[in-house]
C-alpha cells in the first residue's frame, strides 16, 4: 500500500481501519500516504474532527499510542469535503487503494429513512465513484452481512448468484443494490474490487483497551433504552420481548472487522463476509442486557398485542427496527473466507464475552467521555 483513501473514517469501523493502517506501517517499517475524506461541520474543520472524533484518548488502541501522533502528522492527509463533492489531489496518483465505508445505517422503514438511504448510500456513492473511478487500483467496499436479507440456514459469501431476496428494510435493499453497482463500475474501469460484509459490530475484543467502541448502537440501544426507563420508572414491571428462541445474532468485534478489511485489500476474492463462525443466541443477548438493566423480562414469540405503556414506547422506537432481527429465522454464516484471511488471528469467542462487551458500555452510560484514562507513568 503506497496510497490509500478512507471514507467514513469518523465512524466506528472507519476509525479502526485507520488505526490498523498506521499499525501496519509501523510494524512493517513502511511509508505511505493516507487520505481521509471528512466533511467539515459548522463549528469544526475536517482536520479538527479527525483529532476530536478518531484520536480521542479513550478510543486509541494501546498498540499505536506511542507513535500515532508522529504518524498522523507524517502520513495522514485530510481532504475536506462530502463523498459526492470533493477533489482528490493530483499527487495521489492513479493507483489508490480505496476503503469506502461512508454510509447511513438507518434501519427504519419510513419514507424519510428511504430518502436518506437512497441519497446517501446510493446516489452519493454513485457520485463518489464518478470522481474517483479512474484513480483506483483496489477497492474495498464495506457493505453489510445483512444485504442478503432474511434467510434461513447456511449463508455463504456468495450473495450475487442468488435472486431470492427478502429485505427487512431499505438499508439492506440498497446495500445489495450498491454492491452490484460497484462491481459493475470496477469491471468497466478495470480495477480490483472486494466487497466485505461485517455483521453486527461490537466493541473491541482483540486490542486493548478492550470493549471500547466509538459508537454503541444496535443491541446496545436496547440496554440504553431500558436503563433510562428503569431510572424514570423504577417499577416499570415485566417486559415482553419478542424473539426466535432458536435464533441468534452474529456479533463481531470492531477490531476483528478492521483487520479483515485490511486483509481484503490483498485478496482477489470479490465477496467476503466478516462474520464469526458462531452466532450468539438471541435469548442470551436479551437476557444478559435486561438482567444488567435490572428489568424483569418474559421471552415471547411475537410482539404482544396488549402492550403496556413502556412496551408501546419500546416497540414504536428501538423495537421497530430491531425486532425484525431478534425474530429472524435460524441461520449461520459459513465464515470460511474470513478465517482464511485471518488464519493467524484467533477467532474471538463472542458468546463467552458478550456480557463483558455489553456491561462495559452500560457502566460508562454508553459515553466514552465517562472512561477514566490511566495516566502514563
UniProtKB/TrEMBL annotation:
Domain of life: Bacteria
Domain Thioester reductase (TE) as annotated: residue spans: 6-261
InterPro entries: FAR_NAD-bd, Lipid_A_modif_metabolic_enz, NAD(P)-bd_dom_sf
Matches recorded under PANTHER family: BIFUNCTIONAL POLYMYXIN RESISTANCE PROTEIN ARNA
Name of the molecule in the record: Thioester reductase (TE) domain-containing protein
Organism: Aquimarina muelleri
Amino acid at each position: 500500500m503506497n496510497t490509500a483513501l478512507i471514507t467514513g473514517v469518523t465512524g466506528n469501523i472507519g476509525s479502526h481501519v485507520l488505526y490498523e493502517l498506521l499499525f501496519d506501517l509501523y510494524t512493517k517499517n513502511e511509508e505511505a500516504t493516507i487520505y481521509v475524506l471528512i466533511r467539515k461541520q459548522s463549528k469544526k474543520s475536517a482536520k479538527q474532527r479527525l483529532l476530536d472524533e478518531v484520536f480521542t484518548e479513550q478510543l486509541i488502541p494501546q498498540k499505536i499510542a506511542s507513535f500515532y501522533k508522529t504518524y498522523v502528522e507524517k502520513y495522514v492527509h485530510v481532504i475536506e469535503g462530502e463523498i459526492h463533492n470533493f477533489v482528490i489531489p493530483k499527487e495521489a496518483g492513479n493507483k489508490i487503494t480505496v476503503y469506502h465505508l461512508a454510509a447511513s445505517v438507518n434501519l427504519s422503514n419510513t419514507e424519510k429513512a428511504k430518502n436518506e438511504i437512497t441519497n446517501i448510500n446510493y446516489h452519493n456513492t454513485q457520485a463518489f465513484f464518478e470522481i474517483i473511478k479512474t484513480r483506483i487500483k483496489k477497492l474495498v467496499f464495506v457493505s453489510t452481512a445483512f444485504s442478503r436479507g432474511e434467510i434461513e440456514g447456511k449463508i455463504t459469501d456468495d450473495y450475487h448468484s442468488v435472486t431470492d431476496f427478502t429485505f427487512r428494510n431499505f438499508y439492506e435493499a440498497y446495500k445489495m443494490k450498491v454492491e452490484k453497482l460497484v462491481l459493475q463500475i470496477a469491471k468497466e474501469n478495470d480495477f480490483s474490487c472486494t466487497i466485505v460484509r461485517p455483521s453486527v459490530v461490537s466493541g473491541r475484543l482483540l486490542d486493548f483497551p478492550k470493549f471500547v467502541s466509538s459508537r454503541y448502537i444496535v443491541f446496545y440501544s436496547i440496554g440504553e433504552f431500558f436503563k433510562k426507563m428503569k431510572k424514570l420508572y423504577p417499577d416499570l414491571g415485566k417486559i415482553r420481548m419478542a424473539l426466535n428462541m432458536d435464533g441468534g445474532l452474529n456479533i463481531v468485534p470492531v477490531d476483528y472487522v478492521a483487520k479483515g478489511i485490511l486483509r481484503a485489500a490483498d485478496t482477489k476474492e470479490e465477496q467476503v463476509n466478516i462474520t464469526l463462525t458462531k452466532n450468539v443466541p438471541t435469548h442470551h443477548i436479551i437476557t444478559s442486557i435486561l438482567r444488567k438493566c435490572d428489568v424483569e423480562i418474559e421471552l415471547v414469540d411475537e410482539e404482544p398485542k396488549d402492550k403496556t405503556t413502556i412496551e408501546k414506547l419500546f416497540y414504536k422506537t428501538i423495537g421497530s427496527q430491531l425486532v425484525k432481527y431478534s425474530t429472524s429465522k435460524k441461520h449461520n454464516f459459513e465464515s470460511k473466507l474470513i478465517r482464511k484471511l485471518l488464519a493467524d488471528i484467533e477467532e474471538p469467542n463472542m458468546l463467552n464475552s458478550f456480557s463483558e462487551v455489553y456491561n462495559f458500555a452500560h457502566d460508562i452510560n454508553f459515553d466514552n467521555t465517562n472512561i477514566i484514562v490511566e495516566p502514563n507513568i
